[in-house]
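Hey, resending since the last one bounced:
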Amino acid sequence: MAFWTVLWLVMPLLIIGLIAANYVRLIANFLQVLADGIETEAVIVDKTPRRGRRRFHRLVYEYTDQRGQVHRNHLDLFRSEYHNYQVGDRIAVVYSASRPHLSNTKAVVDRARQALRR
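The structure tokens again:
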């Protein structure tokens, strides 16, 4: 009986810790792109609408780094923005020079850099 009590007490803390660790990882990856980002052009290769009442739809894009390696990443957009893009469209992205698989759109990176300068 004591095992299940401890499990019920520890499980929420474990779940919250895992969620927090994921957000820390996402922030660290974004800061890496800000620190040593290289601009390039990506091509949208797939659009995945989400079913039901989900708020975001996914765009998948590919870009080539300075070494010639192709990387694939995705972008989650609101439905209103999602319909502005088509497969084959080109978008400006910034990827990390030291970790080229990390990237984000140039617009988001520019806004973050501008906010950090204030």
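The chain is about 45% helix and 35% strand.

Sorry for the duplicate.
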